[in-house]
Design brief:
mainly alpha; TetR family transcriptional regulator (chains A, B); DNA-binding; Homeodomain-like_sf (chains A, B); about 210 residues; transcription regulation (chains A, B); Arc Repressor Mutant, subunit A; homodimer
Amino acid sequence: MARRTFHRAPEAERRHDLIEATLDCIAEYGLQGATVRQIAIKAGVTAGLIRHYFQSKEHILQEAYRLVIARLTEKAERVTGDPETRLRDFIVINLTEPVANSRSLSLWASFISRVSVDPELAAIHREGYLSFRNALESLLADFLAARGADASPERCRKLAIAVNGLLDGLWLEGCLAGELFGESELVEVALTSIETLLGLPLRPVDAASADR
Amino acid sequence: MARRTFHRAPEAERRHDLIEATLDCIAEYGLQGATVRQIAIKAGVTAGLIRHYFQSKEHILQEAYRLVIARLTEKAERVTGDPETRLRDFIVINLTEPVANSRSLSLWASFISRVSVDPELAAIHREGYLSFRNALESLLADFLAARGADASPERCRKLAIAVNGLLDGLWLEGCLAGELFGESELVEVALTSIETLLGLPLRPVDAASADR
DNA sequence: TAAGAAATTATTCAAGCGTATAATAGACCA
DNA sequence: TGGTCTATTATACGCTTGAATAATTTCTTA
């Protein structure tokens, strides 16, 4: 009865593969389907290996959540260019692939549902949330200032709350029922709504990207 | 070895108690913690009884989700009064207790994370979502019409998408991090933002409720 | 090329899971 | 009040779970 052959992988790579497999399991079968054995199968290893890299199942879930949050926020937080471009790109990125799709939502909701159970997950969540909102708030402040509009801290705070809510909500709608909306309908709604909220026009996406 | 005593409950009451216990378990320990045995303990019965009332665990979860959705939407969909009052109450209800709290979010997220796994849950979800958005769209149409503003179907659709997103997003923010906001800050942000989006003022909440 | 380190597999364990079935007792009606 | 129905308890079964440990194989390096 021959043992299966295997190859030894660098620690970082193996850990990453295991985390990726965990996310695949959660997206496909839900948190309940992300068992140690299923994750191992998906990663092409045996179950015991998971415990060699992660102290417990809780720990691999925490690492997996970190990766989910990073993927949801990293692109939007690295926008470049003038204030208007940065703001507009931020909006578009958050409402299009790969941030907005049903897999993202499945993963996000799975972890959110555990935030109230696992304090460590709650900490990871809070960090990601604050970082996202601060990024948005400074984008708004820069944009308003560049246009010579009122950019007082109070106004920026209120606007950040509203725009953050709008983006979160539209992201949710798009992920949950994307087929109910036209091609780029949600992005259009977001851009025109935010223009209205800020009281300032944003150049249309086409003209703007043609500039670059 | 004496058996434990018990009392026979009417079917409707017992079913309701079991569903309520299910929600308690999910809110406290997450979906994973909502085991047949835990639910039974929470309901003060033994595990076998659950199968007497529900065909399987899947079925009790589906019923539980129906209740969650009903509680999230029923109050807001029953607003009365003139168009402005209805719209404003709709907004306020969705962003205050008991709709907006961390328990609601835990339950909602738990089920949303299973929507992609269980088609029956997906159907329940879709029904609730469409009903909510239609209610909002007609509230907006009535309000715009009453004020003599443009209430064309296209405009109402776009506005409903935006306002729905805004409400969902603010609800999310409030549930997830309520302590980051002032007493009624989210409601204020929602009301002023929606005023801006519609291009029409809403009387403040105080003056309005004093009218009734 | 031989040896040692450790990454990986294989196996085992106790606990908990959803479900099935049999025994019991509460409640209603004759 | 006694008999009957069935809601409820009690117990058991087979599986799966996360975890622990022992056995191997791969890879490095001297």
